[in-house]
Amino acid sequence: MLKHIFPHSKLKVFSKQYRLYLQGLILPIGILLLWQYSSSFSPTYAYAFVPLQNIYYAFIQLIESGELWLNTLGSIKRAGVGLILGSFTGILLGTLLAYSKLLNAIVSPLFNSIRQVPLLGLTPLIALWFGNGEQAKVFIIALASFFPLVINTFQGLSHFEPKYNELAQIYRLSKWRTFCKIRLPQALPSIITGLNLAVPFTWITTTASELFFNAGAGLGNLMMKAEVNTEMAILLTCAITVTVIGILMTITIKLVSKKLFKWGI
User: Fold this and answer.
1) Domain 61-264 has CATH 1.10.3720.10
2) pLDDT tens digits, residue range 235-262?
3) Which of 155, 166, 242, 253 is 20 to 30 A from 222 in CA distance terms?
4) In degrees rounded to 5, what are phi and psi of residue 173?
5) Where are the alpha helices (DSSP H) in the chain?
């Protein structure tokens, strides 16, 4: 039946992709089975390896109470604001560094020094500057997306082939039109790479900042509350939610990247 619908070559590719997908499920399913088996040994094991049905019940409980929705939306909103601010300032600074040798000479030493410090290592200093509230969280989240976008924007705009510069001179393009028509499309793959790096860093930092600055709604705050109350099922439910959202964010960026690459071409 499938042979009449799909050509043989396409059917072969589909079968191969299907097999690879099934092979990719072997390890996760094996880990889940081992986890469930370990939870049946003793109460101590059941505490460390919470039975899967308990995680499911905790998930339903959080959905019905509205806690999961509230805290998830809080984290996504916070991550979105930080990503937008960090991405915008990162692309802007990367562009300025690529166009100005003087600014590059002044800013680069300080920039390269600061980016060597782990973001969470800056937490005490950020707490002194902004306190323990929303501003501190957004600032550290913005830094997570700021650094990769500065580096990738600078690299993308710096590697400018001379033949394109000659083409711009032939058509007498202004600097602005040269930037929009030639340099930006050429740098777009590098900028998108920076965005692909920034998104997971931003989401990880969002959860981490909520663990350190536990004010306001957020999955990190819910995880801290579950840890204090020794509610391991809720803690694991939050961890799974963080993972799933992170994967969805990465997939979204990849889909957007394909659209932008088509536009750039």
Assistant:
1) yes
2) 888 888 888 988 888 888 888 777 766 6
3) 253
4) -80, 140
5) 2-5, 8-38, 43-48, 52-65, 67-99, 101-114, 123-130, 134-158, 162-170, 175-178, 184-212, 219-228, 232-264
Q: Where are the domains of the chain?
A: 61-264
C-beta separation of 146 from 89 below 8 A: yes
C-alpha 265/C-alpha 138 separation (Å) is 35
Residue type, 248: L
Read off the tokens for 42.
């003793």
C-alpha span between 99 and 158 (Å, rounded): 8
Give the up-direction half-sphere exposure of residue 161: CA atoms within 13 A in the CB hemisphere: 7
The predicted model scores a pTM of 0.78
Return the half-sphere exposure (C-beta side, CA atoms, 13 A cut-off) of residue 107: 15
Q: What whole-number distance in Å separates Cα of residue 89 and Cα of residue 194? A: 13
